[in-house]
């Protein structure tokens, strides 16, 4: 009743993705709103790869760098090597025959950290923040340009029995 028919969930936690997408799909399927999940680091994957030799999806250098830029007082610079050494630098072995065999970062490491935080800097965090913010603005502009009807799902195929034999 407020007239809002488009929502972007600005997300920074991988554990929220499937839940936000589920809620968004329900709103879209019901014709109420087009609600999509946006993950800051997924909007700039090439920059993330260029900035960090050993990135990590949880507590890694990209997250550390971003916090160093936004709230440096929250980062204990003297504990970055300890976080790296207590975590995992490589976690590709956490897949078995193509399946992700863990549910949470803590399943792989005592401290839940993946990647090398010692590679993080506030300057890199600033680059990440500015690039991701630019992508979010572009997403919002794109979304604003779309006709609401075009954002709604197409009717699904109605299955019916067809006699294929004469």
Structure explained in plain terms:
- The chain has 166 residues and is mainly alpha-helical.
Mean pLDDT: 89
Provide the helix percentage. 25-40%
**Uncertain segments:** none
Count of beta strands: 4
Structure class = mainly alpha
Task: Quote the distance from N terminus to C terminus.
Answer: 54 Å
- Radius of gyration from the CA trace? 21 Å
Order of helices and strands: EHEHHHEEHH
How does the overall form come out from the CA principal axes? extended
Order of the strands making up the biggest sheet: 1-2
The proportion of residues in beta strands is 5-15%
Number of DSSP helices?
6
What key attributes describe this structure?
166 residues; two-stranded parallel sheet; two-stranded antiparallel ribbon; 6 helices; extended
Present the secondary structure layout.
Blueprint: E1 6-11, H1 17-29, E2 34-39, H2 45-51, H3 61-70, H4 80-86, E3 95-96, E4 99-100, H5 122-145, H6 148-151
Parallel strand pairs: 1-2
Antiparallel strand pairs: 3-4
Helix pairs in contact: 3-5
Task: Characterize this entry briefly.
By secondary structure, the chain is mostly helical. The chain contains six helices and four strands. The protein is extended and about 75 Å long.
